[in-house]
Design brief:
By secondary structure, the protein is of the alpha/beta class. The protein has a single domain (3-254), classed as P-loop containing nucleotide triphosphate hydrolases (Rossmann fold). Helix content is 43%, strand content 18%. The protein is built from twelve helices and eight strands. It has an eight-stranded mixed beta sheet, sandwiched between helices. Strand 3 (75-77) and strand 4 form a beta hairpin. The longest helix is centred in the middle third of the chain and has 18 residues, at 154-171. It is globular and about 50 Å long. The structure holds adenosine-5'-triphosphate and magnesium ion (MG). Residues 12-18, 40, 44, 128, 184-185, 213, 215-217, 219-220, 238 line the site of adenosine-5'-triphosphate.
């Protein structure tokens, strides 16, 4: 049965999408069966997986409002060797549509339950908000992966996210836990990066993943080629770090 992880942080531009896409491709490279779910109407994870968001007829939107099953809506990232439940701007309407539907926080969870046997990992790329879409991601997941930059204000936003996760755990999803904090866009030469990183370890202990993703321009270039970084340039430092992170995830789920 698939283990389901939401990649979330309400802070914008912290590397959620880059992490989801590269972890999906890196897990596939480790022979895991993976589904990536794009929960962001901008469809960056969809495009970064090499799936054209303008060309897909069915997306996560139809799944959320009950007009399609995941099995019919999913597309394939040929380059990444994983499946994609795509998103495009249509998904922006979901917030409003969901208000009128029953069980609105759990629509994604119920839809994914039907394909759980097809995958080892399901990864959900959440938008930068604590919206109904993110809530659907958190309700569907067994755990949350939180990418964060090691900068001065990083810890401040973290408490809001941790509180939201606690509330979802208490009221909606008893399975939910924080799997780990992933340090991304890390600059080993910066003293501040190092200090914040040390603080994170002191505060969160083994909830901090051992793998660290460095700042690496190859990861930022890859989406414009419609490829995950780990496929675009496997030898790049950033890609190697995501492959190491995938191995760590495979180890961690054995302990869950
Ligand atoms: P949003 O909140 O807008 O959804 P996000 O959290 O999904 O953003 P990304 O889109 O993954 O963040 O990353 C933000 C920007 O930083 C992108 O331009 C991406 O290419 C770049 N980026 C992400 N990770 C790295 C990295 N390790 N090295 C260099 N650039 C990176
Ligand atoms: Mg994103």
């Amino acid at each position: 049965m698939a283990r389901i992880f939401a990649v979330a942080n309400q802070k914008g531009g912290v590397g959620k999408t880059t992490t989801t896409v590269n972890l999906a491709a890196a897990l596939a490279a480790h022979a895991q069966r993976v589904l990536l779910v794009d929960l962001d109407p901008r469809g960056n994870a969809t495009m970064g997986s090499g799936v054209d968001k303008r060309a897909v007829a069915t997306t996560v939107y139809q799944v959320l409002i009950g007009q399609s099953e995941v099995s019919a809506a999913r597309a394939r990232s040929e380059a990444g060797a994983y499946d994609v439940l795509a998103a495009n701007r249509e998904l922006a309407g979901a917030e409003i549509d969901l208000v009128q539907l029953d069980n609105r926080e759990k629509r994604l969870k119920d839809a994914l339950a039907k394909v759980e046997a097809d995958y080892d990992f399901i990864l959900i790329d959440c938008p930068p908000s604590l919206s109904m879409l993110t809530l659907n991601g958190l309700c569907a997941a067994h755990g949350v992966i939180i990418p964060m930059q090691c900068e001065y204000y990083a810890l401040e936003g973290l408490s809001d996210l941790v509180n939201t996760i606690k509330q979802v755990h208490a009221k909606l999803n008893r399975d939910l836990k924080i799997i780990g904090l992933l340090r991304v866009m890390f600059d080993p030469r910066s003293t501040l990066s190092q200090q914040v990183s040390d603080q994170l370890e002191a505060h969160f202990g083994d909830k901090v993943f051992k793998a660290i993703i460095p700042r690496n321009v190859r990861l930022a270039e890859a989406p414009s080629h419609g490829l995950p970084g780990v496929i675009f340039d496997k030898a790049a430092k950033g890609s190697q770090a995501y492959l190491t992170f995938a191995a760590e995830m495979i180890e961690r789920i054995k302990a869950l």
